[in-house]
Amino acid sequence: MTSENASDVQTEQPAQRRRTYARLALAGAALAILAYLAWSYWGGTKNQSHGAPPQSVGVATIGKGDVRVFAIGLGTVTPLATVSVVTQISGQLTQVAFKEGQIVKKGDFLAQIDPRPYEIALAQYEGQLAHDQGLLEQARVNLGRYQTLLKQNSIARQTEEDQVFLVKQYEGSVKTDQALIDQQKLNLIYAHIVSHIDGRVGLRLVDPGNYVQTTTNSTLAVITQLQPITVIFPLPQDQVPDILPQLNAGSRLSVFAFDRANIHQLGVGELYAIDSQVDTTTGMVKFRASFENKENKLFPSQFVNARLLVRTLRDVVRIPNAAVQRGAPGAYAWVVDAQNKVSVRKLVLGPSEEDITAVTSGLSPGDRVVTEGTDRLREGMSVVAPQ
């Protein structure tokens, strides 16, 4: 070996030793980190479970009770009657007696059309009737005289027959006059406009002094019936088989109307009608319920949440909704045993009402379930529930 080769070998050996030491140092550091993590997970958790105080949770005791089953739909308040107050005769509107938004009763006076032209026409036709009645009486007297003379062969039969026709003519004139009188009396009734339903009057659409005509459909105002009132709401077609047989059997199904926020109850009514077909665009069927609306909380065209009571489940196991958890196993609850330790219990749930849900299986009356503090629970953990 030459001197140059010996020098190169001596230089490479310290470099290899330094790389080996570096690898050993990195491996040792990695092992130390893994050991710390393992201790933190197993040893630390174990120490925490033994040393940490039990977690405080909210607990509810399972019991039995009734759960009402509802079919819910967004509905619209729809009046049973909406009447447009229109003039049935032409004339000048001389008076408007209602206030906008006023509650009126059937027969209440609303407006007046100038009656004078119709009063004058009535007097004219009454005079014509008196004139024609006089002619008729005279013709009848003459007819009686002619019939006597005809029996005595004192006049020609043609004279008697002509008088018979004249009597019939005057009788027709009298009937025509009476019809014209009745028409003018009816016009005077139409000139005095009254409400035909109980309800609320809307905004005034024509002011006094305007000339209104029957040919222009002069609407003075609109009256909307408020009591009773209805709510029309759609439900999925799949719910019809649960409802229709009860309706056909005469069952009285209650409907509860809530505001759009689903907080305040506006009224309780009764289902009385169902549409005859399914809306093919939505798959929904329209239902109609009637409400007394004594407090006028339901307003025409208002949107409400309608809850139709389909049936009531009697004496079933119930759980607060706050205790129901959902995850990979489905619905479950944390159950607290006699030693105040928690465990997971799978549930089969039924219908819900407000803040409770029916439980088909998984719980029994007397079981205690956690309602608060479920996010930090683990299987077998000890808990403390406030008394």
TrEMBL record:
<dbReference type="InterPro" id="IPR058627">
    <property type="entry name" value="MdtA-like_C"/>
</dbReference>
<dbReference type="Pfam" id="PF25967">
    <property type="entry name" value="RND-MFP_C"/>
</dbReference>
<keyword id="KW-1133">Transmembrane helix</keyword>
<dbReference type="Pfam" id="PF25944">
    <property type="entry name" value="Beta-barrel_RND"/>
</dbReference>
<dbReference type="InterPro" id="IPR058625">
    <property type="entry name" value="MdtA-like_BSH"/>
</dbReference>
<dbReference type="Pfam" id="PF25917">
    <property type="entry name" value="BSH_RND"/>
</dbReference>
<dbReference type="InterPro" id="IPR006143">
    <property type="entry name" value="RND_pump_MFP"/>
</dbReference>
<dbReference type="GO" id="GO:0015562">
    <property type="term" value="F:efflux transmembrane transporter activity"/>
</dbReference>
<feature type="domain" description="Multidrug resistance protein MdtA-like beta-barrel">
    <location>
        <begin position="228"/>
        <end position="310"/>
    </location>
</feature>
<feature type="domain" description="Multidrug resistance protein MdtA-like alpha-helical hairpin">
    <location>
        <begin position="122"/>
        <end position="191"/>
    </location>
</feature>
<dbReference type="GO" id="GO:0030313">
    <property type="term" value="C:cell envelope"/>
</dbReference>
<keyword id="KW-0997">Cell inner membrane</keyword>
<protein>
    <submittedName>
        <fullName>Uncharacterized protein</fullName>
    </submittedName>
</protein>
<keyword id="KW-1003">Cell membrane</keyword>
<dbReference type="InterPro" id="IPR058626">
    <property type="entry name" value="MdtA-like_b-barrel"/>
</dbReference>
<dbReference type="InterPro" id="IPR058624">
    <property type="entry name" value="MdtA-like_HH"/>
</dbReference>
<dbReference type="Pfam" id="PF25876">
    <property type="entry name" value="HH_MFP_RND"/>
</dbReference>
<keyword id="KW-0812">Transmembrane</keyword>
<feature type="transmembrane region" description="Helical">
    <location>
        <begin position="21"/>
        <end position="42"/>
    </location>
</feature>
<keyword id="KW-0813">Transport</keyword>
<keyword id="KW-0472">Membrane</keyword>
<comment type="similarity">
    <text>Belongs to the membrane fusion protein (MFP) (TC 8.A.1) family.</text>
</comment>
<feature type="domain" description="Multidrug resistance protein MdtA-like barrel-sandwich hybrid">
    <location>
        <begin position="82"/>
        <end position="224"/>
    </location>
</feature>
<dbReference type="GO" id="GO:1990281">
    <property type="term" value="C:efflux pump complex"/>
</dbReference>
<feature type="domain" description="Multidrug resistance protein MdtA-like C-terminal permuted SH3">
    <location>
        <begin position="315"/>
        <end position="376"/>
    </location>
</feature>
